[in-house]
Amino acid sequence: MQTHFTAEQLRDPGIASANQVLRTCVHCGFCTATCPTFVLLGDELDSPRGRIYLIKDMLESGRPATEEVVRHVDRCLSCLSCMTTCPSGVNYMHLVDHARTYIEQTYQRPWHDRALRAVLGLVLPRPALMRAALLGARLAKPFAGLLPKTGQLPLRLRALLRLAPASLPPASHLDRPQDHKPVGPRRGRVALLAGCAQTVLDPAINAATVRLLTRLGIEVVVAKGAGCCGALAHHMGKHDPAMDAARANIAAWCAEMDGGGLDAVIINTSGCGTTVKDYGYMFRNEAPDWADRAARVSAIAMDITEYLVRIGYTPTRAAPPLTVAYHAACSLQHGQKVTDAPKSLLRQAGFKVAEPAEGHLCCGSAGTYNMLQPEISSQLRARKLGNLHATGADLIAAGNIGCMTQLAGDTLPVVHTIELLDWMAGGPQPERLATLVTA
Question: What global pTM score does this model have?
């Protein structure tokens, strides 16, 4: 793609990077076939190619973002299916992230949109605030029917209330900063990203991760000072809060690397993993010491399934006769290119694994997307659940808390892949499977 940025514009590192991405695109349109919003809406501007044209024009002109550009960029899920499909290697992720930052800096959203984004940016990365907000949402849930059935704000409020769980598990002490010592001789030492929303919504995921790794001889440290990965703010175009969150993690993990040493930074929420693996890029223009430390962290960041394949996983009990529908989170299959490890581990654990049709299409979660774009999100959820049911499976396994929350509330129980692997290697049966299997 030919671009026309001025020499002055190209002095901006963000524009220079966007220019490189834009020049890689050859207009082939392969991305349109695998883009969830184009598949649903059929609008070229709601495809990666269409958005690339809009972003190119916006950045080249240097003008503030328009309502049209914002509407179509906001509809992008950042599922990155287009990057898996693209034969030219267009790094759409970096381009759309830059566009969102530009939009945040130049466009005045309606008041209710600004307010909701501010609340989400404040609450979701902070477990205590999120827990309080979800308790409030639970009280408000019975009154959801009183909200108007049309209008952007009522639809968003309905989505927020739908996503709020009926009950919350108690906070886990395992998520506090500490060292979890291995069982038997130590084979390695890793840092676990405890995260933010996941510690509130489903602390059993981290608990299963710690149990399994320590039984395999791995010391697991939850580093002091580490917290939200920054992805939620990053994908809303909130550059500074995202960088602050990332900087705290980088400092915490580098202190562990320079102290007791780390073999890996383990992430069991694939949306977070995609961002942590991108820290090196995000900090490329920061001071050299930060750029170097960010690159060190990205170099050892791994999804939990990648790490289990590396160190070796062996089940210790026979699996019940259950068929698991594996839901491939977009951030795992497209963002991190981790496709085989979760399925091979589940089969190794003794489960029959079924893969749904259209596995490349997003479930509609996409971070805050299901709260900001509820209509499109609900259509994608229904489509995904239909494909999952068609497998005839007994349950769904996924590697991302956002997907699990999005798909919850249906007749198929949804559990994290690591919970099943931990169960078959000596851990407890996941609570959500109580109706399927009698322990």
Answer: 0.93
